[in-house]
Amino acid sequence: MTTTIDYKDLAVRLQEQFGEGFTASTDCLEVPPNLVAKAAEYIKNMLDFNYFDMVTAADYPDRFELIYRLQSLSHNVLATFKVICSRENPSVPSLANLWLGASLQEREIYDLFGIEFSGHPNLKRIVLWDDFEGYPLRKDFKGKVYGTAN
Amino acid sequence: MEIDRILSAEIESRESAGIEALRAASQHPIPDPDGWLDEQIKRNMLFTTVDAALNWARKTSLWPVTAFTACCTFEFIGASSARFDIARFGMEVLRASPRQADLLVCAGTLTWKMAPQIKRLYDQMAEPKWVIAMGACAISGGIFCDSYSVVPGYNRIVPVDVYIPGCPPRPETLLAGIETLRHKIEKESISKPR
Amino acid sequence: MDWSISPDWPGNFWLRLIIIAVILIAFVMSSVIMFIWMERRVIARIQSRLGPNRAGPFGLLQAFADTIKILTKEDIVPTLADKVLFWAAPAIAFVPTLMIMAVIPLMNGLQLADLNVGVLYIAAISAVSAIGIFLSGIAGNNKYSLVGAIREIAQLISFEIPMVLALAGLVIACGSMSLSKIVEAQSIPFILLQPLGFVIFMVAILAEINRTPFDLVEADSELTCGFNTEYSGMKFALLYLTEYSEAVVGSALITAFFLGAWRGPILPGILWFTIKMFAVFMFILWLRGTLPRLRIDQSMRLAWKGLLPLSMFNLFIVSLQTVFFPDLALWISIPAYIIISVIIIILWAMFMRKERQSSNA
Amino acid sequence: MALPTEPFILNIGPLHPSTHGVFRMRVTLDGEIIQDVEPVFGYLHRGLEKLCEKYTYKQNIPLTDRLDYVSAINNNWPYVMAVEQLGGIVVPQRAEYLRVIMGELQRIASHLLAVGSLMNDMGIFYTAFMYMFREREKIIDLLEMVSGQRLLYNYMRFGGVSMDIPTEFLPALARFLKVMPGFLDEYDSMLTGNEILLSRTKGIGVMSSEMAINASASGPMLRGSGVKWDLRKDAAYSVYDKFEFDIPIGQNGDCYDRYRVRMEEMRQSLRIIHQAVEQMPAGKEKLPVPLRLRPAKGEVYTQIEAPRGTLGCYLVSDGTEKPYRCHFRAPALINLTVLRNLLIGQKLADAIIIFGSIDISMGEVDR
Q1: Count of other CB atoms within 10 angstroms of residue C109
Q2: Is D130 domain-assigned?
């Protein structure tokens, strides 16, 4: 069975390394946007989390939420990171250099949400064409979704 | 390869400009080529043996080029496989090149990014050519018609001869659609415009 | 019952030429039509499905429907294509396949020209049709057909030499290069006398006519349609015809050289010839239905490292046999030759496998 | 003086016979050797995740069918499990067994198609494809008997499955289970020992297990490289812990191993179906669930072992009857991250085979 990591102990360890900002909730660890890359590198090297399962985003009225799921296949342990970033100019350090699997998923989030991933080797639109104005998966997207012909 | 990076960016922007232009240009469906319908009503169709021979040849050897986009692809493959064999009607040669094909089967959802490719494919086909719009997505965008990136129906891009409903249509429905197209080809004549 | 036609049968030389030429062209065209129908039906039966049966009884008129439709389609010439080359290439590809038939004896005496350099003539002309296919690939200004054309030339060059050397074995065995003499010497078909030569010639012919497992030129899963991607209408009809007339001529060559063209007990010569030709084509279809495709470098490695040494060895054994024990009893020479060739093939295959493992290990 | 050559860009474009859908690779070729690959996605991007926010929970089930249209039943599973976890619905045992049986049948059908189209790319002129499609038609008949549709089944509901199996389903399934191993042996005899197939796939497109894990590949791609990771055993969702079956893994991660893994997985799926049919209890196949279901506020992530890899569904609900955010982790898209590393340096003919062995389905890649 996939066991989840003990988030409180992880939060304490990360606090020693990188300082304040890590709050552990029941099923995920909240990480400040600027420390994501360092925390992920720490967890990858120290605790052998070699599998980047998934990253996805959700658009809330006041914030963007990014959910990272990192796994260690050898010990069958799961860690879920949650990153809150502002809606003005959302930017999160990219994990594509740590795990190759993150590159396409981050490009897709950039394409559909407009969240910048700084340090991504090839950050451009993946599914839409360049002249497509706006980011469709945001709640305030005025596309043709609700029958309004654009 | 640096030159590739610049080159592919330039190709990318030229293509997306093409998509936007096509999207603006095709807000209204192209009328279906049903000239043969009123001909029949007027009953003045002059049928020569040359027409009959040509129509028989074109009817029995319809070579499809398939715009394999989405789920209807696998119903078309199911129709051309061992159980519902399309090859019995002489449609077996799956020519990958549009030059030699004369039937464009549009199977699946058409998105705006794919529309210029389908337009170019249709223009490349040699002249006596017909189009089958297969599946609800091909007729009117189907379950995805409200989406921001789906073309509501192939008839915005290419003139469609036969519409086959269903999501995805069963192979028997596809064969019935091909049968209607064959009846349509029987009634065509070289002297009349399509 | 020997059905034969005397050399000066209708009296006037020119009349004989015209009549036999018409017979030859009619023979090739009708067998092409039959091959198209046979291919679609036999491949369908291999794949446990029916194949065309709506156009006429058992789909016999399917080939006619295909040709009428292709001939009346619009003939597109791409704007950036090299106009003259685009127009000339299909003709260059098709005409040599008919010219090869001139030398093949359909029946005892039914041969357009009994050249005494028959084998050399065939080896030369078969290369020209490959040039035609190469030009059609280049002229269309399409990247896929360009790759297909380059592969055609690579394959032609690498399989030309083993084919000629396999035929050289025959020439040594029966002393002359003219086909009628080769057929006369075949009281026992050469397939039994020189099995190694037959295997090499068969593989080389498969590569020359671009049939599976060597159909890299028109590899429809990699290069959409290979060299004929840009052709439509009448030019495509000529190229489609070339593909099948090459198959007809290829199987005719195999029957002429190795299966004793028209020699057979009761039936007239030409019937025996067609039966053997259709049998060879059936074997080619069986290969097409079941074998995957080789990569271009694998097929060239097979030609240079596999067939070339084997054909030289075949030449060595045949010349050894004709010089030292010319009148060896048949019941010794046939089994002996088969055993030697089997051993050689196995040894060479093991050597090539070991060499391939050491090269990419 | 070396002949001056220059690379040329070739579009293995959206409409190509062996790109398994509308996928485009802008390939820079130097002769036949590939120098650079630029995959282009998006030709089938229908904005499915945006539409999920427009329909109610139950209306989304047919939408999930169109995700990976080659194995449609497996797409419903994670979405339905997510809503059940949010809504606190406990699924009756019989429904779990029915889902396992239909899921494994769909896995065999999807693998048949994957291996069939790989043989197509290799040049066997549709023969292997037609044989495998003949068997896929048998499975489609079974699934049509259960759900009424041929390709996109809309079969699973919250709290169970839409309809119970008709009486003639089990005898038909028993006939299929008796016949199918024979067909698999027939394919093995035709394909596995084939000398040309071996020379075309052995040692081509080798992916080491480290690269597979780093590129977060999943499914036959991961197991082909020797990593023993299968959600049916490791995450043990639904009733998979009641069956015993083993996980086939490859040795050196080339196209041949991925082909062997898929053939072996079909046999394991047959074993699972055998055990599931024996242990299936009687009882209700669906719990009555209100049409306009309003699951509790919150977010959940569920994942299953789909034929192409780990298919996950991340669902956020805000208490209304429409999902607030619904994201699907597409294994086919993530398996493609490694495409560029596998293709550079290979020949054009091998690139088609490697791409075929990755086995993608465009509905899932572009969503």
Answers
A1: 17
A2: yes
In a domain? residue B7: no
Question: Where residue D103 sits, what CATH number does that domain have?
Answer: 1.10.645.10
Please provide the average confidence, as pLDDT, over all residues in chain D: 90
Residue B169 lies in a domain: yes
Average pLDDT, chain B: 84
Q: Which residue of B has its CA nearest to A147?
A: B146
**DSSP single-letter state for residue A4:** E
Taking only the tens place, the pLDDT of each residue in D94-129 is: 999 999 999 999 999 999 999 999 998 888 878 888
Q: Do D46 and B117 touch (CB under 8 A)?
A: no
B99 vs B121: CA distance, rounded Å = 9
The whole-number pLDDT of residue A146 equals 42
Quickly state the pLDDT bin for D175 (edges 50, 70, 90).
Answer: very high
pLDDT of res. A149: 40
pLDDT digits (tens, 9 = 90+) for D322-354: 999 999 999 999 999 999 999 999 998 899 999
Share of chain B above pLDDT 90, in %: 28
How does strand B130-134 pair with strand D8-12? unpaired
Nearest to D364 by CA among D315, D317, D306: D306
In a domain, C334, yes or no: yes
What is the number of domains present in chain C?
1
The pLDDT tens digits of the residues spanning C136-181 come to 989 988 888 888 899 999 999 999 999 999 999 989 988 888 988 8
Nearest-angstrom CA–CA distance, D46 and D50: 9
pLDDT of residue A150: 38
Residues of A near D (Cβ–Cβ under 8 Å) read: 1-2, 50-54, 56, 58-59, 67, 69, 73, 76, 80, 99-105, 108, 112, 125-129, 136-137, 141, 143, 145-146
Interface size between A and D, measured as CB pairs under 8 A: 84
Q: Domain locations in chain A?
A: 3-140
pLDDT of residue B179: 92
Q: If you search the block for the tokens 């290419």, which residue do you land on?
A: B158
Residue C34 lies in a domain: no
Domain carrying residue B90: 28-186
Which residues of chain C fall below pLDDT 50?
none
Which among A124, A130, A143 has the least Cβ separation from residue B148? A143
Interface test with B, best of D26, D28, D61, D66 (most B CBs within 10 A): D66
* Host domain of residue D307: 49-335
Q: Into how many domains does chain D fold?
A: 1
CA end-to-end span of chain C: 62
Concatenated DSSP letters of B24-35:
HH-SSPPPP--H
Q: Are A149 and B156 in contact (CB under 8 A)?
A: no
What's the structural domain count of chain B?
Answer: 1
* CA dist D27 → C223, D31, D73, D313, D322 (Å): 13, 11, 35, 33, 43
* Structural domain containing residue C92: 73-360
Angle, CA A54 vertex, CA A49 and CA A60 arms, to 5° = 125
Contact (CB<8Å) D348/C220 = no
CATH class for the region spanning A3-140: alpha beta
